[in-house]
Amino acid sequence: MTSSEINAYDGSLGDLVHRLTQSFIAEHGEPPTWIVAAPGRVNLIGEHVDYNDGFVMPMAIERYVAMAASERKRDDRGIASVRSVNLDVFAEIDLTKIPTPPETPSWMSYVEGVFAGFMQKLGPESTQKIPPLNILLESNVPVGGGLSSSAALEVATATLLEAVTGVELGKAEKALICQKAEHDFAKMPCGIMDQFSSVFGQANAFMLLDCRSQEIRQLPFSSDGISVLITNSNVKHELVGGEYAQRRKGCDSALTKIGASSWRDVTMGQVDAAEATLTATERQLARHVVSEIERTERAAEAIEANRWEALGDLMYQGHASLRDDFKVSCKELDLLVDIAKAIGREGGVYGSRMTGGGFGGCTVTLVDSDKVVEVSQQILKAYKEQSGVEAQLFASRPAIGAHVISRSPS
Ligand code: GLA
């Protein structure tokens, strides 16, 4: 299946880059000197455990933020002008000083936060090392879909700054600068999964990321017989920031009460033993974290043994835990998972679950490749009938992480 066979977002990176180049020429009268791209991600399993020292298993998706830039010729103000084609908005960054966090975050906060981190890394000469720039960006990562459009924007910005200055960051260092931008400038206390996925993504592999050691084991996934289908519920309940921070706090206080220093060392027996000291909510959070870390380890074993049905079962279990214990699902995501489950193995589905932070956004579903079109049509129809909302669907192979697409000789 190509995405356009169903109903979804216009897919190819080549098309995105071509469009962006044309827009850049139209705006600035010349082709860009640098073009970079960074992907969004989908998480197969391991949800809300990246900030709890757990394992996660994301893959970068074939949807990118692309950024084109060149030096501003007649600039006497030392600025980087940044325009987003999607949002049709424009902003400027003053390069003569390190940006400081905004009162109220906006789309530019992600970009500014990365400039700040990169400038700090460059040290006192940073203001000379980053020339005045015209930057144009376009994204085909669905925004607000739980597919890390913001991490893609951050990582694209860092990749552009590497290309422009010739200063290459370590890969993990780059992801961590981007995570810090999200914490400080976008005020979202995220874990490391999204930025690591966008930086370290590899074609034909799921990524088993150990969020305690930050080590990555790539799990080869080249089977053409199985497809990863991403379904956007097209609902977004505006709870995300606050609810997310609350879950984090709840996990931290539960861990303290259990008397452990890392969730990785906690067993279900310890959770049960601490029952009397935990609030009902903390008990549920703890149950999810401990069981989800274990499920993710088992999922890695299942993939290595090509046991797709076992992986599918773990996905359904993970969804139930996010819905009932961690309480980050919503009725539309539950509906999408129920529809996939009802189609079942005979219909071509192995498993399905919500993906990302929750409260709307997308589900991820494993499907027999030769049934993808049929399954997609069934999901779209049933979801529309039962929720009144039109979903969007696309399949993606694991994609390569952030990279420079072109750099014209100067
Ligand atoms: C958001 C965060 C990630 C992760 C997921 C939930 O995407 O940015 O760090 O915590 O939610 O797994």
Automatic annotation (TrEMBL):
GO MF annotations, alphabetized? ATP binding; galactokinase activity; metal ion binding
Q: Which PROSITE patterns match?
A: GALACTOKINASE, GHMP_KINASES_ATP
Tell me the Gene3D superfamilies matching this sequence. Answer: 3.30.230.10, GHMP kinase, C-terminal domain
Gene Ontology cellular-component terms listed: cytosol
* Domain Galactokinase N-terminal positions: 23-70
**EC number, UniProt record:** 2.7.1.6
Per UniProt, the enzyme's principal EC class comes to transferase
Give the GO biological process terms: galactose metabolic process
Presence of keyword DNA-binding: no
Q: Which UniProt keywords apply?
A: ATP-binding, Carbohydrate metabolism, Cytoplasm, Galactose metabolism, Kinase, Magnesium, Metal-binding, Nucleotide-binding, Transferase
Which InterPro entries does its entry note? Answer: Galactokinase, Galactokinase_CS, GalKase_N, GHMP_kinase_C_dom, GHMP_kinase_C_sf, GHMP_kinase_N_dom, GHMP_knse_ATP-bd_CS, Mevalonate/galactokinase
- What residue stretches are annotated with the GHMP kinase C-terminal domain? 299-384
Which ranges carry the GHMP kinase N-terminal domain? 110-202
Do you know which PANTHER family this protein is assigned to? GALACTOKINASE-RELATED, MEVALONATE KINASE/GALACTOKINASE
> What's the family?
Belongs to the GHMP kinase family. GalK subfamily.
Q: Supply the name of the protein.
A: Galactokinase
- State the organism named in the record: Novipirellula aureliae
